[in-house]
Here is the input.
Amino acid sequence: MDSADECERAVVVLYSTDLMLLSSVSGAAEQLGLGFCNLRSLSETVGVADQAGVILCVDLASNVDVWQISANCGADVLRRAIAFGPHVHVQRLEAARAVGFGLVVSRGQFVMQLRQLLLDRAGKDSE
Here is the structure.
C-alpha cells in the first residue's frame, strides 16, 4: 500500500525509501497479523501515525526530520515509535531519542530483531 487512504486500518507504518527494508517489514507485519503501509511523505506519515494502535517505524537514513515528527505527533505515538538508522549516524540516533521516540536502535538491530520489536510494540505475546 502506498497512500494514506489505503493505510487507514494499518498498524505498522514504515517511513523509508529502502525497498529491501520495505519487503522485510511488510513480511514481518503480515506474519504477525498486523496491517502495514509504507509512506514516503512526512505529512502523510504524521497523519496516519496519529491513529490508535499504529506502530511508526522511521528509517533515519531517509533524512527525515525527527523534530518535525515530534512537533506533529502525540506523545503516545512517539512512545510506541521505533527509529532506526546506521550505527555511524550517532547524531540522528541521538536526535530521535531527544524528541521522545520510544525505541531507537541501529539498523542492524532493527532488521535482526524486527519480528520481536513489532510484537513488543503491538503488545502481543511471543508467538
Remarks:
- The first strand starts at residue 12 and ends at 15.
